[in-house]
Amino acid sequence: MTRNETMRKLNEIFVEVFDDNSIHLQESTTASDIEDWDSLAQITLVSTIEEYFGVELTLTEVNKLQNVGEFLDCILSKLR
Amino acid sequence: MGEEKILLVIGASSDVGSALIRRVHKNYTKIIAHYNNNISGIELLRDELGDIIIPVHAEFDDTTSVDSMIDFIKDNGYFPEHIVDLVSPKCRNERFHKINTEELEKNFRCSVSSFARITAPIINNMSKNKRGKIVVMLTVYTENIPPKFLSSYVSVKYALLGMVKSMAVEYAGKGICINAVSPDMMDTNFISEIPRIAVEQTAEKNVMGRLLSVDEVIPTFEYLLSDAADRVTGQNILITGVK
Fold it and tell me: Does ipTM come in above 0.85?
């Protein structure tokens, strides 16, 4: 899966989790750019990402993620 | 044959219930082991410990089923001297503004109302005998500030805590001790529906850096059921872990 394809799927996941069709992710998007992106949303995002991509993100990895680009890096490193 | 001493374990097929029964069975002549959908856990106990285990089924969302369980206890003269209640609602994360009130009501029915419905006739018998012990499992979240997004689960546990304390003061003069045990998250099947990352976060926050094991919690139940706790009532004992 390419970076662009992964980004498109990640956008779909964000739209579903936040129930907000207006979300258009950039690699620089952070939790402060999306109103409801809090600790609960983070858990739901990680669970949904893990389920869709068939990967497992560790708590240490998740705690380090600063923006969507780093989410992508993490997912892609697991898919290789 | 000596005097009958009966323990009722509500939610006996859970990991905590099975471990508790294995730990304390020698203190009782009969253990009434309530289960909902996990008969295999009870059958295992029965295979291991024999006829001392008396399985009883009840679906706590159904008052008729609860009443049948009470009738079974009464009709057989199985009035327990000790009760342990391990029934718990699902620990599911949700925002309060999206709370499922039907599920909330079901949780209250299954955990709070059913506990009262079952315990009321038994405690009446305990009062006549001037002895009895009741231990209810709650959660460490009943102290201080609970985590976010668990309003349904935490509310049910607080309601039970209120009931434990109210019952304790009401029956202290009747020789009945009523207490709660409130462990931090344990490594049991109960957490299987909680997202893995949330479980890991909880484990990381614990001073031990891991979840509690069932074996670390059971001794507190054993103590509260023992003669050593004959003067302990109305307490909520937290088990948080020590490094």
Answer: no
